[in-house]
Amino acid sequence: MKKTLTGSLALALLAGVLAGCGSNNEGNAEPTTEPSTAAADATEKPATEEVSDLGGKITFVSTRTDMKNDGTLDKYAAKFKEKYPKAEFEWVAITEYAQDIRVRLTTGEAGDVSFLDPSLPLSELQNYYEPLPDSLFEDAYFADLRAWEGKRYGIATGVNTQGIVYNKQAFKTAGIEKIPTTLDELYDAAEKLKTAGIVPLYMNVGALWPITNWGENGAWYVSGQGNFFDQFVKDEAPYRMDNAWGTLLSIGREFVQRGYTEKDLATNNWELSKGEVASGKAGMYFLGNWVIPQLIAAGAKSEDIGFFPLPYDNSGKYNAPQGPDYFIGVSKDSKNKELAFKWVEFFMKESGYTDAGGYLPVYKSQKSNNPQLAEFDSFKPAYIESLAADPKWNEIANKAEIDIYGGKYIQKILTSKNIQAEFDALNAKWKKAKEALGY
Known about the structure:
alpha/beta; D-Maltodextrin-Binding Protein, domain 2; 6-stranded mixed sheet; 4-stranded mixed sheet; 38% helix; globular
């Protein structure tokens, strides 16, 4: 079944505005009390022979190319088939997920289950996804971040924090004896890595989505405000040097200008970069905890990978985020919704995905034993929880054709000669969009 995106989202698609990895902010909504009939049926039936007779094929569309390639997803399917022997799976794992998933949504090709497009306005979730059952959200973080009019359409697959993931052997080779706790110390460490012939920080500018951490995926917690983007709805010039946008983007530009990043800033070298950091040819990432298992899978020893908060100033104190990774949901186009709901429940509660992905648990009663997260916590950052933001934030960005969570405009800022000129251009588009929408 084909669909069309409406309003500002359709304009965004035509303009190539794309979602990025790991959205942290969306709109508010109340908890759902009326799940769809398919959702209710899927959760109310007891685990009997009748339920185990559920069968058919479901397709799961996700970002996890690594888990498809190493067989992890196949292991999940095998475990699920122990409960539902008649179930069959097709995995669709996409490297350029942000660019691809929106197109798939509009053409009805987003599978039976998929990771949600993080830039999709909350009001349009109902056009593409089925409401999920209340039972899935008991004791869960971020229960209402993908909700609209009392119905929840997605649940976070993991809880992330963000900072500097580093190779301890690379630091040792470069003679770095102290983990940086100030911005000056971070620059000093980067200089030592560069002198030692090691790429200081693999930024992945060409991959686009990783650099959203220097913008919307980082600015909110640096500001200390979980709902940082609410003010953008009222602000006609939100892109400024004197706020968290300016702080992070200035640091990112400094790394680029000093040659502290990979030389190739145009090519998507994401998969290549993991081997570089795992082997110590590159020293650092500015990413979330989720990348740590991927580095270990790429050949690093667990004990050689560390994690500390980004020191974005010289105060010695810093905020760190507590935010969701991708949300998972059931497609409205699914021909096998009952089994799809069962798969989501299994994926969240029984598959082991949270541990395998290196995430903090989604359910509050669970704890992580990850040593890298313990190291990160030892620096005692102030954790800022991601809060639901005014949905007008997404609407204005889409209308302005600013690819929030996509990375293209951030790539331009990081490599431009004049950051203020880039900010002025963004502010002009933002103001025009606000006025057109009447906000």
